Amino acid sequence: MYTPDGHTRTCGLIGNPVAHTQSPLIQNHLAQITGQNLVYLPFPVADGNLEAAVRGALALDFLGLNVTVPYKSDVIPYLAQIDPLAERIGAVNTLVRCPEGYRGYNTDMPGLCRAMRQEGVEFAGRDVVILGCGGVARAVAVMLLDQGAAAIHILNRTAEKARTVAEEINGMAGRDFAQAYALEDYERIPGEKWLVIQATSAGMHPHVDQAPIEEPAFYRRVGTGYDLIFNPGTTRFMELTQRYGGRAYNGARMLVYQGIIAFELWTHTSVGQDAAEELYRMTCQALEGQQEQGADQ
Fold this sequence. Notes:
Layout: E1 9-15, H1 23-34, E2 38-44, H2 50-59, E3 64-67, E4 81-82, H3 84-89, E5 94-98, E6 101-105, H4 108-118, E7 127-131, H5 135-146, E8 151-156, H6 159-173, E9 178-182, E10 194-198, H7 216-219, E11 222-227, H8 236-243, E12 247-249, H9 252-267, H10 273-296
Parallel strand pairs: 1-2, 1-3, 4-6, 7-8, 7-10, 8-9, 10-11, 11-12
Antiparallel strand pairs: 3-5, 5-6
Helix pairs in contact: 1-9, 4-9, 9-10
């Protein structure tokens, strides 16, 4: 049995809330299988205490932190350095100790990229449809630009908000890479067998009966639907995608890979694919148990 000692390094998660996070399972398991003398704990941070939390972690010599909602953007002013990808995305979910303080990274999008490729979902050279235009959707757009997608089509309830994001992404691209549409205008998107990334909160527990769009005509044109939600394991968006013949995936593998990338940044170790798959199975089992417990309450 592992016992922390005077040489144990500490990492953790800050956010509000953090009670149902799977990150301790992921990070402590990785520490165990790689032989790292490291413990990982969740730390709820109340509104107004973010700067104090970062300074406190620095004072206590924490090796690193993960950052979750609502602080992924708010934490940036308290960093000594920021990775270029995280700066372009405008959100940080991993802090790594550096000589001056903490350097901020975004491992969510590299985690999504790695997860999609592991599932056999290729996006390089393809048009991709993104549902939503919030912070997560914007991050997905930046990732797709960096990873060589041909173009993106942003669908949102409010077309004007989608246009604002599209214009920003096109400014980064230096070309017409992103197009914006209202949800009801999906017929204007060219092609068939779309790859669609669902980047809204619609369908997340406890609102499991929701999807950002319901029309069968939309789902008949979806070849692959990738929902970034992982609770529930099968969302309404995924159900509709599968009903009309498409492949559907959830965000559980992204959750695992973003954690693995963070762990590799903290410890300078490499996690093999077999270990990643074992951790993915463990995480899915834990999420299923959490969902069953929530249904019983």
